Amino acid sequence: MATINTNMSAKVAANSMIRNDRTMTSTMERLSTGLRINSAKDDAAGLAISSKMTSQIRGLDQAVRNANDAISMIQVAEGAMKEVTNMFQRMRELAIQAISDSNTANDRAALNNEYKQLSAEIQRIAENTQWNGTNILDGARTNSVFQIGANADQTIAVNFGDLATNNVSATVSNATATPTITLSEKVASTDVVSYKITDDAGVSHYGTIQGSQLQADAAATVVEKSDLDADVTEHATAAVTGTGTVITFTKTGGAITISDVVISRGVHAPIGATDITTRNFASTALGVLDAGIQDVNDTRARLGASMSRLEYAADNLQNVSQNSSAARSRVLDADYASETTELARTQIIQQAGTAMLSQANQMQQSVLALLK
């Protein structure tokens, strides 16, 4: 049937061109972005799957960075521990030297000066070794948790140990018959206050008070047995106030002097209660140092094992991320070989459709011949 108002051939050609243009536009978008799925209409299920994979991949990549940061943090701690080990070894060497009676009192005093300086430096290192502005060797990091997975609860805990700390300062007063130690603030329950007591005959010994004994808000009596004299007991009465603690010492018969006060905790605490000014003190220090060296070695071994574990964890995370990226690529990324072939096909069809639309429009001209 010959009609003018309705040109079916032209409509068929135009509709075909619209569908082809839509396909060609989609193909060009995929080639431009490199993605097979650019919107939900391209592949709704594929979009959901690839989005979930993206969450996992980005989480895995961040977990790798977390693991590497943790390794760096542990390396800082282990490096400081290495220097502490070196100082402990030197202190042990000094103690062995001081045990020998070939040394005079002045010799031992000189050896003890270095010994005490090294002890103070160990405490300073513990207080100042930091990662990202936070102390890592003062007992605050005994249970550090590192996120090394893309999901919750995928963690590794690392114990950095408790080398030492000294958040409290002490002032000693020997001006009265009952000397005192005044602490700048309340001590923690794990702190140890160590001090040296010397009687009026020049005989000395070390005493310690646990921080837990100084936690009460009322005065507490701490009894220290000593070898200053036979059957002599020192009584240390600790009055805890709102701002600090005052420890008052009394002794039955004669005067006493307090010195060498150290407030510390962890591995360093027993070291603070030693010196090498006498043969007996040096012998005692030797045993304490051996225990300290063993503690530091144990901590270093634990940190080294944690570093090794984290390195393997990071390698595994990278492998999982790599394989997950490959899986996502198969769902999400455009296949350029296929898409370029599709583009060529749609471009040819576009040209052919344009030609056919032109022909369909020309066919209407044949109606004019019927009117002549």
Write a structural description.
Helices cover about 50% and strands about 15% of the residues. The protein has six helices and twelve strands. The protein has helices at about 10-35, 45-100, 105-130, 270, 280-330, 335-365, and strands at about 130, 135, 145, 155-160, 170-175, 180-185, 190-200, 205-210, 220-225, 235-240, 245-250, 255-265. The strands form four sheets. Strands 5-6-11-10-9 form a five-stranded antiparallel β-sheet, with no helix packed on it. A three-stranded antiparallel β-sheet has the order 8-7-12. A hairpin with a 6-residue loop joins strand 5 and strand 6. The longest helix has about 55 residues, at about 45-100. The two termini are about 20 Å apart. Residues about 225-230 have low confidence and may be disordered.
Topology record:
Blueprint: H1 8-33, H2 44-99, H3 105-128, E1 130-131, E2 134-135, E3 144-147, E4 155-158, E5 170-173, E6 180-183, E7 192-199, E8 204-210, E9 220-225, E10 233-240, E11 245-251, E12 256-264, H4 268-272, H5 279-332, H6 336-363
Antiparallel strand pairs: 1-2, 3-4, 5-6, 6-11, 7-8, 7-12, 9-10, 10-11
Characteristics:
single chain, 372 residues, alpha+beta, 52% helix
- Structure classification: alpha+beta
Principal-axis shape: rod-shaped
Low-confidence runs of at least 5 consecutive residues? 227-232
Helix content: 40-55%
SSE string: HHHEEEEEEEEEEEEHHH
Q: Would you report the number of β strands?
A: 12
Overall pLDDT confidence: 87
What strand line-up does the widest sheet have? 5-6-11-10-9
Number of helices: 6
> Strand count, sense and closure of the main sheet?
5 strands, antiparallel
Overall radius of gyration: 41 Å
N-to-C span: 18 Å
Q: Note the beta-strand portion.
A: 15-25%
